[in-house]
User: What shape does this take?
Amino acid sequence: MGPEAAKPLQTIRFGKEFELDPGLFELRRSGRAVKLERVPMEVLLLLVNERGRVVSRQEIADAVWGEGISLDTDNSINGAIRKIRQALKDDPERPRCIQTITGRGYRFIAPVATQEAEGEEPAGAEPPAMAAPGEESVEAPMQPELQAAAVRAPAAESPARASRRWRLVLVAAAVVAIAAVSLVVWWRRSEARIASERTVRLAVLPFQNLTGDPGQDYLSDGFTEELITQLGSLDPQRLAVIARTSVMYYKGARTPLRRIAQDLGVQYVLEGSVRRDAERVRITAQLIQVRDQTHLWAQEYDRSPEDMLAIQSEIAREIAGEIQLALDKRATGSRAEQAALSPQEYEAWDAYLRGRYLWSKRSEDGLEGGVDWFRKAIAKDPNFAPAWAGLADSWTIMSSYGYVPASVYMPQAREAALKALQLDGSLAEAHASLALIAENYDWDWQTAEKEYRRAIQLNGNYATGHQWFAECLAFEGRFDDALAESERARSLDPLSTIIAADNGAIYYFARQYDRAAARFQSVLDVDPANGRAHLIIDVYVQQGRYAEALAAIQQWRRQGDGPWIWAKEALVYGRSGDMARARQALEKVRKAHRSMGLDPDPLLDVAYAGVDDREERLATLEDAFRRRSNLPTALKVDPLYDPLRGDPRFAAMLHRAGLDR
Assistant: This one.
């Protein structure tokens, strides 16, 4: 149902410049339309209609998506509120329009006045009085019966007034006619828009595992990921394919296609299933145009397991034809024309899928498990390039996360990436891994940028490539370019919390603290364990909001206590002047890191920043250079280093990290 209860004949004014027109389903600012998608618009209409009252998240879900929908709508509500605030230029910390009531819901608090949409105010009339925050407008709309009575009583009017009234009626009629014509034109254009757009957006939903064995999930998930990769490389200029992270939110969920399309911003959806027995694999796939639920294409494949890569390529080509893309031969080259695999090659491919399935979890255990399967794939087929790229991806991330010593594993990652490119120079993942190695291990920013650009050139739909490149640009202080890349990553992987958190980190490095805090909080609302988003604590420290920083730490502690929480406590207590507690937390970090497998330098660096121990901080940074960890990458932009910037030794470190440009 939704905000149909909003008064359809009334334009709602609020703030100094905004108008909400329920009849035209339009938000305007200073008379100009503001782009707002359907779900955020429905949420805004609901909140405005219930202004002054706290509207619960359940009420929003029931009104917009219908009663009985399970509250995985939470992610969409958060996104809708965020988009509304962006459209209204509303600060969640100092709201003028949408107030968050923690644990309860949202309340519309801006003063509101209403005006009938079809009419105009008489010249010289006083504007309607603005209501106080949380109160209904003083002026009630004219009831239809009174409107009719007013039309039936012209004799009470003076001739001049009657003439003016009829002129207004004619003007209003003309406006309505123009609006109607405009609406028809808009509708016809919107019907043709998808066919004429330069970029079509497609989501490959998780293929269903119909084997009856949950242990075979790796096969259906791997098939999904490989299709995303192949479709993403067909024609990135015209076909944007949503990344795996976002589509996996819908695995096993019975989410309506229209809602998926709204969440991901796609016009087309590919869905299917995988069945497998000892000798045969049956794959069904269908392409759906979400706008009218039209099934544009459907096919069933019944093949031997050795034909799996060929099936993927066949599906990719048929979909591309249905979407009427002009495909470049280079984009449909060797990987799109795979022949049937030999038994040994099939075993390598099967092991690779298992490795990617574990790698995608990004946990320490998952990455280690991925390495094991990639090695098994290489043992079966040493010339299988994707498995070498998988090894490179695993070791670079494990080193960057501090799970393993960078000085040992980064050189191995480089060898694996180079081997992958020797076998297949078109692998975007391998180029991105080389870029991450150049950035985090070599501090070679020129090579990193070259490799990132090459990865994106090969696969413009590779969201992780855009994400990592954005972070690289941010470390160099190139924030406008970084945010552009970050937004591209977010558009390709709109539900990825790590991409959203990295977007917040760029705002933090750029000293745009309010935006950073809002982005981090939106991530923590749906992913409380996201470590990157807990940079919100550092944001609060820079703003002097120590009570909120400590509250954020306590929220984090609910996910489990540990050294990172103690390091952040040392930072907050120290900066707020409670040195006794800061030193207690620092001592806990010191004791813990001796028995930890994690890289201790980032932890100690944060804790020493709290107690303002310059010498220990510089010594920790020296240790990081010796270990070749990725800690020096943020020296130029992280506000935590501001107290060190006048020290010649720190300036020398910036030079060693290649960040003094």
